[in-house]
Amino acid sequence: MPLARRLTLGDAVAIGLGSMIGAGVFAVWAPAVGVAGSGILVALAIAAVVAYCNATASAQLAAVHPVAGGTYAYARAEIGPWWGFIAGWSFVIGKIASCAAMAMTFAAYAAPEGWQVPVAVVAVAALAAVNCFGVTRTALLTRVLVTCSLLGLAVVVAVGLGSASDASHAPLPDASAYGVLQGAGLLFFAFAGYARIATMGEEVVDPAKTIPRAIVLALGGAVVVYALVGVAVVQVLGANVIDSTAPLADLLVSAGWPALAPIIRVAAAAASLGALLALLTGIGRTTLAMAREGDVPRFLAKVGVRHQVPQRAEIAVAVVVIAIVLVADLRDAIGFSSFGVLLYYLIANAAAFRQTGSARRYPRALQVVGALGCLVLVNSLPVVASLVGTAVVALGVGYRMLRLRLARR
Prior knowledge:
By secondary structure, the protein is mainly alpha-helical. It has one domain (9-408): Amino acid/polyamine transporter I (Up-down Bundle). The protein is built from 17 helices and no strands. Helix 6 packs across helix 7 and helix 8 runs parallel beside helix 11 (207-237).
């Protein structure tokens, strides 16, 4: 059974913003400034350029292949089933780790000490239930959460920029080329949510027009928000941001507005929930697409008759995320997740590069820049993250090889 086309342009943009303006904007500045130093805004620009190139590749592919699954489906159609599988597998494993991280981030802001894990589990279960009751409810809740996040960030930007001239702080450390690239890799992780729109291509009204517009609008909005917040953080906190676990709340305290810090706590919790909701939705759709092709158990390809959403896939993803929350410490999971995300977009650029004729919407040069950017950033990640990511991708490839061999017999 096909999924229902119910999402408008506004819904798609909200889902994209909800994926990008998540917990990253509240937490990414400390590690990013720590490696990029005074080159943090250059790192932001690099991340934005790579993200834009990847977004145009996704938009071009989605206009021709308006089906669930994102680059998994696009790469299967354009460059073959194996590349599609690697893209889909990379997306699923990377984003499942991101889901657990978002759930833990939400609990860190919203739960008292000692209750973080139970609250994170409840959050995952509750949002998975929302997804199971229909995609329009997902879009509506995402709009609410994005609005809360943007209001909180507006307070930060207004206070930060208004108080910057009075702030005194240590200067940022000097930048190095490698440090700037590391910072760009971290910031790219926070941008990567625009793919969530493409993975829902089977549920968007008039996808050939809506998806490209929604991707560019959502990415453009996120770039503006990140740039404003980054400037405010650097001007007010300077090098002090490196040791901060809650830089936006510390910004308000340093600027003389400690009473507003609870607003940021609420906004951060809302942003984490928004990102988690959109991530669960996107992974469920990619899992559905892979199940339809037999690349994961076909049992997960069932679409509910009443709400027309892939409920089995949504529930399976939620169960795996909850298991990770219960047993793992995911402070180092961003590197692993970034590995999967960058590999996913590398394949997206390769697939878009092969398109010809009326399918082409953007110059091939953008796909070349996007692919090279992914390669550079993935090689700037910590060695352990790259090794673990490579091992997990190889495990998935081995599973598919075994399945195909058994099928032939």
